[in-house]
Design goal:
about 280 residues; alpha/beta
């Protein structure tokens, strides 16, 4: 009887403890053990005409690919921050995540000024000066760089940590999909307007930034896909020769998100933690 009373007492004590779970409003649940990535923003700071549904689809695919790598993921409802490219009507958290994203971009190993929106260029000019010149050799070296990291601005590292703590995340991931051009039989998906649209054409360029909230270390990655026989064969086998441009784009996004997730799992998380 005495043991039973002790058990009831301990049970009541546990029930009275405050709930400490994270109420993030994310789309995916996560475990506290191991890294937890908050998908901060999937955006284009290079191509204003990309459709909002592109960003949403990409974010969903990226979240799933990260989970396939056994990485816990949290998605915010406004992960694409679509309004942030044109006005300031979004929430203060959205605005801060945009600033953190831009800071990671302009302090990277190679900032491609030619693939930047006016908003990003103004930020770069104000924070790192006007020494941004496109250099093919530097960009080539940048794409082939070892897995190096750099630091976010100290004041923004504090903001990043505050947001990460809110969601129970250890890291934040940002994707800048700066150039997308997918055509099929003369159908143009994105913004390029060259007259030559016959046949099939695919080109996507994006950079991604993994930020460790605790120390502000940034891991920068790059993913570029051009039309290749392998990619075209993959698309034709999957959907047949009648594949439309949206199906083609989805096939490209699947490859891209898989590439990013594997790189983050294999190199990114280790790099930002050990540096």
């Amino acid at each position: 009887m005495l043991m039973f009373k002790k058990f009831l007492f301990l049970l009541l004590c546990c029930l009275m403890l405050p709930y400490s779970g994270v109420q993030a409003g994310g789309l995916f649940s996560h475990h506290t053990a191991g890294p937890v990535i908050l998908l901060g923003e999937v955006q284009s700071y290079g191509d204003y005409e990309l459709k909002p549904d592109f960003f949403n689809t990409f974010a969903d695919k990226l979240s799933q690919q990260l989970q396939n790598q056994k990485i816990s993921v949290i998605n915010r409802g406004s992960v694409t921050n679509e309004s942030g490219r044109h006005d300031t009507s979004q929430s203060s958290e959205d605005q801060m995540l945009s600033i953190i994203h831009m800071d990671a971009i302009v302090h990277g190993h190679q900032f491609e000024y030619g693939y930047a929106t006016a908003k990003l260029k103004h930020y770069a000019d104000a924070h790192v000066g006007r020494a941004h010149f496109y250099d093919d050799e530097k960009v080539k070296a940048w794409h082939n760089q070892p897995h190096l990291v750099y630091r976010l601005s100290p004041d923004l590292q504090e903001k990043a940590q505050q947001i990460a703590n809110k969601y129970g995340a250890t890291d934040l991931l940002f994707v800048n999909d700066k150039d997308v051009d997918v055509r099929l039989k003369g159908t143009v998906f994105a913004t390029r307007t060259e007259r030559e649209t016959r046949g099939k054409k695919m080109k996507t360029k994006m950079d991604y930034y993994l930020i460790h909230a605790q120390n502000g270390h940034v891991y920068e990655g790059h993913c570029e896909i051009n039309k290749t026989a392998q990619m075209m064969n993959f698309a034709i086998v999957k959907s047949g020769k009648g594949m439309n441009v949206d199906e083609m784009l989805n096939a490209v996004m699947t490859v891209q998100t898989k590439t990013i997730a594997e790189d983050v799992a294999k190199h990114g998380l280790k790099a930002v933690n050990e540096s």
